[in-house]
Structure formats: C-alpha cells, structure tokens
Amino acid sequence: MAPYEILVGLRYTRARRGAGRNGFVSFIAAVSMLGIALGVAALIVVLSVMNGFQQELRTRILAVASHIEIRGIDGTIVDWQVVARAVRANPSVKAEAPYVLGQAMLSEGSVNRGAIVRGVDPTLENTVADFAAHMRVGSLADLKPGEFGIVLGAELARALGARLGDSVVVITPQGTVTPAGTLPRVKSFRVVGVFEVGMFEFDSGLALIHIADAQKLYRLGDAVSGVRLKLDDLFAAPRVARELAATLPVDAEVRDWTLNHANFFRAVAIEKRMMFLILTLIVAVAAFNIVSAQVMVVTDKQADIAILRTQGASPASILSIFIIQGALVGTLGTLIGVAGGLALAFNIETVVPFVERLLGVQFLDKTVYYISELPSQVQQGDVVFVAAIAFVLTLLATLYPSWRAARINPAEALRYE
Predict the structure, then answer these.
(1) What pLDDT score does 168 carry?
(2) 408 and 333 share a domain?
(3) Whether residue 343 sits in one domain with residue 277
(4) What is the pLDDT of residue 398?
C-alpha cells in the first residue's frame, strides 16, 4: 500500500466541517463514531456486570454448598472415613467433611416452617464451606454434641421469630411407632447462631445442627448421608468427580457443584449470550451508519477520485483510500468505546450508588433480587472480543462504498466539472 493512499485517507477523515454537504458528511461520520463508541462501551459494561453477577452468585452458593458431594446410593454411608481416605489420594482434594441431611418441620410458637436440616461437624465443615464469614450471631463452634443446638438461616429465623437462645421444635418425618399409631419424632433445639449468605434458598430453608445430634434425630447410628469435598480449583470439579467415581471403594453417587446448580448457571450463561447478541446489534447499526456516510463522501469526492485516476491511481488504490477513511472512523469509535466502557466497568460500584442517590431510586431491591449492588468483573477476553467485532463490522461497512468509488469512470466524473 503506497503512503499517499494513507495520507489521502487521513486527509478525508480530518476534513474541516464547513457548511453545506461537507459539514453534513462530517456530522454523519461523527454520529457513526459516537454510536460505535456507545455500543462498545455498553457491551463491555454489560458483559462485565454479568461476569460479576455470575461470580458473586457462585461465591455465595459455594459458601454453603460444596465443590463435590459423595452421597450413599441408599441414602447413607456407613464408614465415611474409608471414603475420606480414598478421596485424599486425589491431589485436587483439599478437605472433606461428613454430613447428615434430612427434612424437618421447624416450629416456634404458632409458626411452622419446612426446612432442610444438615448435620455437620463444626471443625470439619469450616474447611469445606465458608459459614464462618456469614455468621450474623453465634458460631458453628457453639454446636456441641448432645447439647442439641441449632444454627438457622436469617430468613428462616425471621419467619419463626426465633432469636439467639430461643427454643425451636424440630419435627422429623421419621415416625415413632406407638400403640396409638405412628407419631412424628419431636425434639427441642436451642438457637445458638444465625447465618446469612445472601441466597434466599439457603437463608430461608437451611438449618445446621451437630452431626452427632443429627444421627440421633434421624436414627442413623454411626452412618452419615455423605461426604462434602473442597477442591483447590472449583472449575476442576467435573473432572475430579469423574476420577473419584472410578476409584471410590464404596457404591456412591458423586455430584459436583455444576450438576447440583446446573439449571441456574445455565440460565445465567444463556442470559449473558443473549445480552451480548442484542447489544451487538447496536454496534452493527452504528457501524453500518458508516455506509451512508461513506457513500456521501464518495459522491462528494467524485472529482477528486477522477483526478487521482487520471494521474495514475489504480482502482485498488482508490479502494484502499476509502477503506482507510472509513476504518479510521470505526477504529476511533471502538477505542473511545473501550476506554469509556472500561472506566465505567471498573467504577460501576461507585457510579450506580451515585445515580441512585441522584434520582432517589434503588435499582436492585435486596428483598426482590439476589444481590443489592451491581458487581463487575472485567475479563480481558471479553474486551478484546468486543473490540474485534466492532472493528470487523466497521471494515465490512466500508467495503461497498469503497468498491463503488473504485468503479467511478474519470471521464464521466469530470464531464460537468
């Protein structure tokens, strides 16, 4: 490509915006550039917020759930220590903890709520979950074997009206056979703690008791429902689960966190893809505005094109000149959009509260949504991908006007000059 082609293309881009057609063409080019910038910035911000939203939810879910769960085929594992020794042989496993899981009805006064009761070993549980960081009052360490203490989710405690030190009646579906018939098992527990992870599913439907108390409550003896594992890399969970399933010495079901919450994370991923496609259309519309601007430039510069042709410029050179001119508009718009999008994405946790205070509204009500603040996680791959798409679309938009300029007949163009 000859230097003069670049110089001419840059000169057309830097043309002063006077009155008449030249000013209008420059205005259309500026609007196209601004449209591309806004579209690119919106794409980067939305993708960053979706990434942050996904990471925040994953963090909250895995604060309560485990990376991998090994469950007994019949609902119980008799010797969980054997399973623990087997899984420790895998270098990806960092910690393991047994658990007992059962359904129950919790009652406080005249209020009844269904819940999942999980029996845990407080010491081991803190190695596979992150309850300690989400305790509002009390501690898992307050769960002592034989003392029948219970830790409630914040929403569950609020619904029951239970506070620290109150008694909560736990009613299990496993009945006790009496001459009068089968009666549900009833046991009184003392509230020793309340946790809040920010996920309604757990805060409103999960209660923790000591594993020894759970074994007595559900008559399991020394058996447990399963073993929970924590890995050094949570994204390796599917691979490690397959490896463990092939090496376990007992019959058990191995499920990783991606299976336990597959529908939820799949829905988030689909939403991210759809938002990407929708916002890409904004960039496409702005990019193809360049077509109209370029066509007007070509029409306005017909005499210049004819003179260049008579001086020896080839159709390929004319094509290059207008591709450079249009691509520069798109490139500047993309760079401005990337800069603006990154600035907003990195500061969105400051910008959104400012806008909320300014307008007197709250965009994310914590009583309705999972989270009350917009998280943001900028991923380099997303930024590069968005910038590349915007650049490619602008290049495609310049092809037709540039091709049309290259086909101009010098004699026809100069006939009325």
Answers:
(1) 93
(2) yes
(3) yes
(4) 84
Give the end of a domain, one of 256, 290, 323: 256
Q: Which of 199, 232, 256 is the last residue of a domain?
A: 256
Residues 97 and 47 in one domain: no
Task: Give the per-residue pLDDT at 287.
Answer: 77
> 126 is in which domain, residue-wise?
68-256
Q: In this predicted structure, what is the pLDDT of residue 382?
A: 87
Question: How confident is the model over 234-277, as pLDDT tens digits?
Answer: 888 889 988 888 888 777 888 888 887 777 777 777 878 888 88
**Same domain, yes or no: 181 and 302:** no
Q: Which residues of the chain have pLDDT under 50?
A: 1, 17-20
Total count of domains within the chain = 2
SS3 letters across the chain: CCHHHHHHHHHHHCCCCCCCHHHHHHHHHHHHHHHHHHHHHHHHHHHHHHHHHHHHHHHHHHCCCCCEEEEECCCCECCHHHHHHHHHCCCCEEEEEEEEEEEEEEEECCEEEEEEEEEECHHHHHHHCCHHHHEEEECHHHCCCCCCEEEEEHHHHHHHCCCCCCEEEEEEEEEEEECCEEEEEEEEEEEEEEECCCCHHHHCCEEEEEHHHHHHHCCCCCCECEEEEEECCHHHHHHHHHHHHHHCCCCEEEEEHHHHCHHHHHHHHHHHHHHHHHHHHHHHHHHHHHHHHHHHHHHHCHHHHHHHHHCCCCHHHHHHHHHHHHHHHHHHHHHHHHHHHHHHHHCHHHHHHHHHHHHCCCCCCCCCCCCCCCCCCCCHHHHHHHHHHHHHHHHHHHHHHHHHHHCCCHHHHHCCC
